[in-house]
UniProtKB/TrEMBL annotation:
SUPFAM superfamilies: Periplasmic binding protein-like II, Winged helix' DNA-binding domain. Pfam families: HTH_1, LysR_substrate. It comes from Pseudidiomarina marina. Keywords: DNA-binding, Transcription, Transcription regulation. Residues 4-61 form the HTH lysR-type domain. InterPro entries: LysR_HTH_N (IPR000847), LysR_subst-bd (IPR005119), WH-like_DNA-bd_sf (IPR036388), WH_DNA-bd_sf (IPR036390). This is LysR family transcriptional regulator.
C-alpha cells in the first residue's frame, strides 16, 4: 500500500476547518486552483469524495468527517510534540503555561499552583484572558492548563479534559464592625448595602435564586465582575459582599473582614481544563492528583 501524502492531508485539514476554499488558500499562501488540485489528489488516493459544495461553502461528506477525525489526531499530536520540545520537557527546566479566566480569584490560583511554586525545575508562565481566548490558545498547544470557574465540554475539534478541582461555599462577608454584627443575616440583607458579582457570574445566578426562594428583596449596592475588585471593594463598603471565602481569605485571617452568613446551596466550582494528549505532563499530574 502506498504511503499517504501528509501534505495533501494538511491541506484537507485546513480547508475542513475553514469551510471555504478561498480562505484556506489565503491562510496557506497558495492559489485556490493549486489547493483544489491537492484536495482532488487526496480524494483520488482515498477513493471517495471528502467535500460537497453548498453555494460558496464546502461541506464535509460522511467519509470526510471520518478522515477529519484522523487528521485532527495526527496534527494535534504533531503540535503536541513541537510544544513539548519548545517548552523543554526534554530538559531539566520545564516551562509550564497556565491560563486563568480573567475574573478568577487570585487566591485560588495561588492555592492551586502552590505545589509547584518555587520549584527551580519549573518555569511558570501565567496568562489571563477570557475563557474563549484561553481555549483557542489551548487548542494550538500554547497553553498546558486552564483554570476556570466554568465547565466546558469536549468537542470534535477540541478534545479536552475538564476536571472539577475545588468547590467553595459563598458567604456574606463584610467589615468587622458593631453595626454589621448587630444584624441578622440573611434576613437583614435589605437593610445594608450589598455588593454582588456581575450578572454573567454563576454565583450571581445562584444568589438571585437564593433570594427568590427565601423571599429576600434587595437592590444591589454595586455589581462587580472582577473578583480582585470585589475583594478591594468588600473592605471599603459598610455592608456585605456576596463572595467565596477564598477570595478574601487573607482579610478574614487578619480580622479585617468577617463572615456573617454562609449562603446555603450557593457555591463556586473551580475547574482545571487540559487538552487530551498521548503523554500527560508530570506537572499536570502533580497538580491534579
Amino acid at each position: 500500500m502506498r504511503e499517504l501524502n501528509f501534505h495533501h492531508l494538511f491541506y484537507f485539514w485546513t480547508v475542513a476547518k475553514e469551510g471555504h476554499l478561498t480562505r484556506a488558500a489565503q491562510q496557506l499562501h497558495v492559489s485556490q486552483s493549486a489547493l483544489s488540485s491537492q484536495i482532488k489528489q487526496l480524494e483520488e488516493r482515498l477513493g471517495q469524495d471528502l467535500f460537497v459544495r453548498e453555494g460558496r461553502s464546502l461541506k464535509l461528506t460522511e467519509f470526510g468527517h471520518v478522515v477529519l477525525n484522523y487528521a485532527e489526531r495526527i496534527f494535534n499530536l504533531s503540535h503536541e510534540m513541537m510544544s513539548m520540545v519548545e517548552r523543554g520537557d526534554t530538559h531539566v527546566v520545564q516551562t509550564f503555561r497556565v491560563g486563568a479566566v480573567a475574573t478568577l480569584s487570585r487566591n485560588f490560583q495561588e492555592n492551586f499552583l502552590r505545589p509547584i511554586l518555587g520549584n527551580p525545575n519549573i518555569q511558570l508562565t501565567l496568562l489571563s484572558a477570557s475563557l474563549e481566548q484561553l481555549l483557542e490558545q489551548l487548542s494550538m498547544h500554547k497553553l498546558d492548563l486552564i483554570l476556570s470557574n466554568r465547565a466546558v465540554a469536549s468537542d470534535f475539534h477540541l478534545p479536552i479534559r475538564c476536571q472539577c478541582v475545588a468547590q467553595q461555599s459563598v458567604s456574606l462577608i463584610g467589615p468587622n464592625t458593631e453595626a454589621l454584627q448587630g444584624k441578622e443575616f440573611p434576613r437583614d440583607l435589605d437593610k445594608v448595602p450589598v455588593l454582588v458579582p456581575g450578572v454573567s457570574s454563576d454565583i450571581r445566578t445562584q444568589f438571585d435564586m437564593y433570594c427568590e426562594e427565601n423571599n429576600l428583596q434587595l437592590t444591589p449596592y454595586a455589581e462587580v465582575d472582577d473578583m480582585a475588585m470585589l475583594r478591594v471593594m468588600s473592605r471599603s463598603i459598610q455592608g456585605v459582599t456576596v463572595v467565596p471565602e477564598v477570595v478574601v481569605q487573607d482579610e478574614l485571617r487578619a480580622g479585617v473582614l468577617k463572615k456573617y452568613c454562609t449562603l446555603e446551596g450557593v457555591v463556586e466550582k473551580f475547574y482545571a481544563i487540559t487538552a487530551k494528549r498521548e503523554f500527560e505532563s508530570t506537572i499536570i499530574s502533580t497538580l491534579l492528583n
